[in-house]
């Protein structure tokens, strides 16, 4: 496998040569070029499978080189580098079938993964070309068909329910299984850390994860039939035993995987292992495993066997809600978090935790925090709307750690925003800034209150108290000030200016302008022109 590095910056080329372990990536030869002409010469003279190319170069752009590569029908995986997050560049790179689009400055760990993916893609392309040449493309399709079979089975799609019908279905589909084959499903949950690769680049995370899985799930005792993600960060590994099932092998591999996930993927994991079943009974084993996954509270970095799991009969006994309410009202947020953490720890020790208990606890805690914020005139349901809150809410039932993280988010956000609203000048400054930068938008009390998550009536009272002027009158003054500036500095018509400062009705605008300025908009513009200094002759 050969690679070509193209960049007009000598130091970038040198850094790429020295800071990436090319041997580990199966790269045999590294060619370098400092402009498009040199790159073309190398491509004409040497077989190159991967090109890493800068876009902005003085003697021809990287996109021009990529267009030439496509015109000449070279089988090359191209990784484009650029200093600018320009959509037009990205769109053009996609049109020219670039493998990836990477922003400088270079993060070498991330770029290494991208190159690793490109190498795999190039090898796959070479393999396909050989398969097509030899007339054996069906070998590649076989793996795809098997993965599709197992994925559909995991998702519960279009399969007969009875064991006898299922065995007949497998035979009818010409799948390479016998009724007596013993299959083992392993369900893996992943918990990416904050700011890990899984948190900010899911596709690269999945690629690295699959590499780890296929490397570890290897043994002469079984074959890997499929590895598929059936729900975000929930993966199913399907194994087929080649001899009598040996649980010790699987437990050892799962323990190694948990260690590797923490070390290389920056991610906690748990493994839930079903019983080995014959093919005709595997549907029920998978169904039971999925049910376990939905019901149980997940303990990170642990291994569970389905046959050893006993569903706890948990009855929800709430924490001391009165004490928690008092702690919130006293701004004792750290004490609140300690109290809820101790409560969760006791529940876990007493083996009385399940999804239902966590769900009821989440409801009680959220209601306490929302009521606390409402008493301070803060619109909590709007404050917590957004990607972060929604994601933490969904994940909160996964594990004790996730529930603590969600409660921490609720409380820290409440503490931060309560502190903000207790400084009226900060709130008023925020509203004034918003009015002046959005004077052409809808500026009702409701819309302004939404920007600071406050009750509209409370915001109006607070604004009047701090400024001595009502919110409505301040909006009018800000808009008329903006209109004056436009009348003085532009040739826009008065009608256009009225619209720009938020008034669709010209008569209404003219009336308000005269009240504030003492003259009509046209008279104001004329008077400003008359006052302008005469330019020297």
Looking at the chains present, what oligomeric state does this protein adopt?
single chain
Write down the CATH class of the largest domain: Alpha Beta
Look at the structure and give the mean pLDDT.
85
What is the alpha-carbon Rg in Å? Answer: 32 Å
Task: Name the CATH architecture of the largest domain.
Answer: 2-Layer Sandwich
Q: How many structural units, i.e. domains? A: 4
Looking at the structure, the CATH topology of the largest domain is Alpha-Beta Plaits
CATH superfamily of the largest domain: Reverse transcriptase/Diguanylate cyclase domain
Low-pLDDT segments, ≥5 res: none
Strand content: 5-15%
Protein name: Response regulator
InterPro entries: CheY-like_superfamily, Homeodomain-like_sf, HTH_AraC, HTH_AraC-typ_CS, Sig_transdc_resp-reg_receiver, Tscrpt_reg_AraC-type_HTH
Keywords: DNA-binding, Phosphoprotein, Transcription, Transcription regulation
Domain HTH araC/xylS-type: 429-527
Write the SSE topology.
Blueprint: E1 2-6, H1 10-19, E2 29-33, H2 36-45, E3 50-54, H3 62-71, E4 77-82, H4 87-95, E5 100-103, H5 108-134, H6 138-154, H7 163-172, E6 182-192, H8 197-200, H9 202-216, E7 222-231, E8 234-241, H10 247-264, E9 267-273, E10 277-278, H11 282-295, E11 303-305, H12 321-329, H13 333-349, H14 355-374, H15 380-383, H16 387-395, H17 400-421, H18 424-437, H19 445-451, H20 456-467, H21 471-489, H22 494-500, H23 506-517, H24 521-531
Parallel strand pairs: 1-2, 1-3, 3-4, 4-5, 9-11
Antiparallel strand pairs: 6-8, 6-9, 6-10, 7-8
Helix pairs in contact: 9-10, 12-14, 13-17, 14-17, 16-17, 18-20, 19-20, 21-24
